[in-house]
């Protein structure tokens, strides 16, 4: 009897290990495919302790619409919706942060929408504020899109990486130890 019980426990443990391995493999695969789809921009979350600094730097107001281009798990957008009364819109190509974002939005009931779409194809005409945490090469490619689509009064806030040609109207240096990750660039259009 004891041996049968022990066997059942062993089988349950093996099933749990198998399920965890499958989930980890799928997450890793999704990140690798995401890297290929985004041309090498990895999924790395903005440091939570900088959410407030970023949204204060860009002076986000209640009712404004903030876009996060490459929103990852949409944590910044959820924060902006909950703490600043803004509406969030995110674009994310990598599957598992996108699914995580959908789940988090559902659970928190935050006023945020996310799309599994390439942000180069996004229409920015409804945005009041655009947030980016990307790479210098991607910022360079986005700069003409911003010049074309962002209207007077719109703001762009970029974490860590600046636009190559436009001069930032404000640079906030946070207490982060890392030289680039500590910088927040704000551009007024
Ligand atoms: C450094 S992470 C930033 C995540 C999030 N914005 C944050 O601050 O926590 C950049 C994200 O952009 C996504 N990404 C890169 N290029 C993209 C594209 N063209 N369209 C949609 N998402 C993209 C990547 O999948 C990645 O999750």
UniProtKB/TrEMBL annotation:
Entry annotated with the keyword Phosphoprotein: no
InterPro entries xref list: FAM173A/B, SAM-dependent_MTases_sf
GO molecular function, one term: protein-lysine N-methyltransferase activity
Transmembrane annotation, as ranges: 12-37
Listed SUPFAM superfamilies: S-adenosyl-L-methionine-dependent methyltransferases
Swiss-Prot/TrEMBL GO biological process terms: methylation
Signal peptide: none
Database matches in CDD domains: AdoMet_MTases
Keyword annotations from UniProtKB, A to Z: Membrane, Methyltransferase, S-adenosyl-L-methionine, Transferase, Transmembrane, Transmembrane helix
The UniProt record lists the keyword S-adenosyl-L-methionine: yes
Record-given protein name: DOT1 domain-containing protein
Protein species of origin: Candidatus Buchananbacteria bacterium RIFCSPLOWO2_01_FULL_39_33
């Amino acid at each position: 009897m004891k041996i049968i019980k022990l066997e059942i426990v062993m089988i349950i443990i093996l099933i749990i290990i198998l399920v965890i391995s499958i989930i980890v493999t799928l997450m890793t695969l999704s990140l690798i495919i995401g890297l290929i789809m985004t041309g090498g921009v990895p999924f790395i979350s903005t440091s939570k302790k900088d959410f407030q600094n970023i949204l204060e730097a860009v002076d986000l107001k209640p009712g404004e619409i903030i876009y996060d281009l490459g929103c990852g798990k949409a944590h910044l957008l959820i924060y902006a919706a909950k703490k600043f009364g803004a509406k969030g819109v995110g674009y994310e190509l990598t599957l598992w942060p996108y699914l995580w974002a959908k789940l988090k939005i559902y659970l928190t009931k935050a006023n945020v929408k996310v799309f599994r779409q390439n942000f180069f194809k996004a229409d920015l005409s409804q945005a009041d504020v655009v947030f980016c945490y990307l790479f210098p090469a991607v910022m360079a490619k986005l700069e003409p899109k911003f010049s074309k689509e962002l209207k007077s009064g719109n703001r762009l806030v970029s974490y860590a990486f600046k636009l190559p040609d436009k001069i930032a109207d404000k640079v906030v240096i946070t207490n982060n130890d890392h030289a680039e990750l500590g910088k927040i660039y704000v551009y007024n259009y």
